């Protein structure tokens, strides 16, 4: 993923506990499976990178969650670094409890974080009401997040890049006062091709023309762009039951033929109990 905005309410006794809208940006030539239940890991709902073998965002039937963005540092990229997507799939595909709570897992990742190219990693356990963040290019240690509306792009959490600031504010407006926006509305919010002004652009070590192109929430260039948009909501529906709704709109209908901009959509709902 390259742009994630989310609202986190760990003390919620009813209604939305977690609301997320996210864009996955990737090279168009890189093959991937769309969001689906993994046949070899029962209970895991995620897309799948067919090159590296991991994933960028997923959730499980027992309420575990993970998502990842790359950290933009082109002069630090190492071609021999291990794939970052396995940091997500390892948490989601493991036996429940194997890696402990979210903060335990993030601390395990941090011990060897320097072997990877730059990343941000969100790890959650909704049954525990815990959501953690770690970036291997930040001086901050892994941390559990407090309630609030946050965003991550290709820098550390809540870095004020124009598209992050705008989409975080739009999400906050959607969910204020307990509103429950349709997931399709969140997806529409993220598929915004408008570019930032030059005076708003960050300086990340890439040419200005490319900095402009990547400033859009929905990126569309001949070789690289937003490959899919995911909206996810976890709601407290009574007692110890959580309801999970997930919708993905992508440019791949499962055949690995790219249609831009994509309109292939998949939707899933399930409950987490206990």
Judging by the overall fold, what is the CATH architecture? 4-Layer Sandwich
* Poorly predicted residue ranges: none
Our Rg estimate from Cα atoms comes to 17 Å
Structural shape: globular
Numbering strands along the chain, what is their spatial order in the largest sheet?
3-4-5-6-7-8-9
Average of pLDDT: 95
Outline the fold blueprint.
Layout (H helix, E strand, L loop, with lengths): L2 E6 L6 E13 L4 E6 L6 E6 L7 E4 L3 E7 L14 H9 L8 H10 L7 E7 L4 E6 L7 E2 L3 E5 L9 H14 L7 H8 L17 H6 L10 E15 L2 E10 L13 E9 L2
Antiparallel strand pairs: 1-2, 1-10, 2-11, 3-4, 4-5, 5-6, 6-7, 7-8, 8-9, 11-12, 12-13
Fold and architecture overview:
Pfam families: TANGO2. This is NRDE family protein. The chain has 5 helices and 13 strands. With 274 residues, it is of the alpha+beta class. The chain has a single domain (3-272), classed as Penicillin V Acylase, Chain A (4-Layer Sandwich). The model has no long low-confidence stretch (mean pLDDT 95).
